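Task: sequence design from structure.
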């Protein structure tokens, strides 16, 4: 009667290509129990053990830990269940690696100092929920305790940063700048002041008419102002003053004189307060982060309208 072929660790190593040290480690950990031992106590393994070793190698190459490999071999969990868990872990690892790569690209581009590198890495590693929470907390603080136009602020806080799993260096830089912006005390003070001004205007009954006029005519006014800028017109030109007159007429309440210098100056102040370039930058950065169409600057057109109203 024939006997089953067995192999020493050295022979198993030659047949599988795995180092003797690795096979001995698996055996010591209970993943590859010996089939038999020689009279001298050396471990022996049969063909079934060789197949088991190949499975252990495969699972380890897929990144499973020793505990998961052991669970699969003892069938306390299926390989399929382990695979599902491992895919989820790999997806998260890949996401973090992509972010790390993007951080390094941004660091190389900006030639950042060590402190900035640490900040960039912390910001880049935030989850989508953490990024959205940062924005929600920002707007919560901007309107806390104020009676403001809820629909206006609903639109303001609706835009949330959603950084892709594999962001471009530009998207990552935009997110870092965005996060720094909403945490900047000066910017927070600016937006809070805008909110307080709006609340006071609502309380004084001075908000509804200008706000409605801006919602209705803003795009038209912007287009006319930009056309004048492109044509080299001055704010005091006939075109500039016609635009100023239309803005004032649409914004004035029945009890206000749209032609008075005082009213137009107050209106220009409101335009200037709401047209701060940092507020515009907020939306430009969100567009880059989220892959939206670029948000062109409105500063030249807004500046033209302000100067025309003051003119």
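Answer:
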């Amino acid at each position: 009667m024939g006997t089953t072929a067995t192999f020493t660790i050295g022979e198993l190593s030659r047949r599988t290509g795995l180092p003797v040290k690795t096979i001995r480690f698996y055996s010591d950990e209970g993943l590859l129990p010996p089939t038999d031992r020689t009279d001298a106590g050396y471990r022996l393994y049969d063909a079934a053990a060789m197949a088991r070793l190949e499975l252990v190698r495969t699972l380890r190459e897929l990144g499973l830990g020793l505990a998961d490999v052991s669970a699969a071999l003892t069938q306390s969990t299926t390989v399929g269940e382990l695979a599902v868990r491992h895919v989820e872990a790999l997806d998260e690892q890949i996401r973090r690696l992509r972010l790390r790569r993007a951080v390094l690209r941004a660091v190389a581009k900006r030639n950042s100092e060590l402190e900035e590198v640490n900040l960039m890495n912390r910001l880049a590693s935030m989850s989508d929920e953490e990024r959205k929470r940062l924005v929600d907390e920002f707007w919560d603080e901007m309107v806390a305790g104020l009676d403001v136009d809820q629909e206006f602020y609903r639109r303001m806080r609706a835009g949330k940063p959603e950084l892709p799993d594999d962001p471009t260096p530009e998207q990552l830089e935009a997110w870092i700048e965005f996060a720094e912006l909403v945490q900047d005390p000066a910017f927070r003070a600016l937006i809070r002041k805008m909110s307080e001004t709006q609340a006071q205007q609502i309380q004084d009954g001075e908000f509804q008419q200008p706000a409605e006029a801006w919602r209705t005519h803003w795009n038209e006014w912007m287009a006319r102002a930009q056309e004048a800028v492109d044509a080299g017109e001055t704010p005091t030109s006939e075109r500039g003053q016609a635009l100023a007159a239309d803005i004032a007429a649409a914004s004035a309440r029945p009890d206000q004189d749209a032609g008075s210098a005082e009213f137009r100056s107050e209106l220009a102040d409101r335009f200037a307060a709401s047209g701060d370039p940092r507020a515009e930058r907020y939306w430009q950065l969100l567009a880059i982060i989220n892959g939206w169409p670029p948000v062109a600057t409105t500063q030249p057109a807004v500046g033209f309208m302000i100067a025309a109203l003051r003119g």
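The mean pLDDT is 89.
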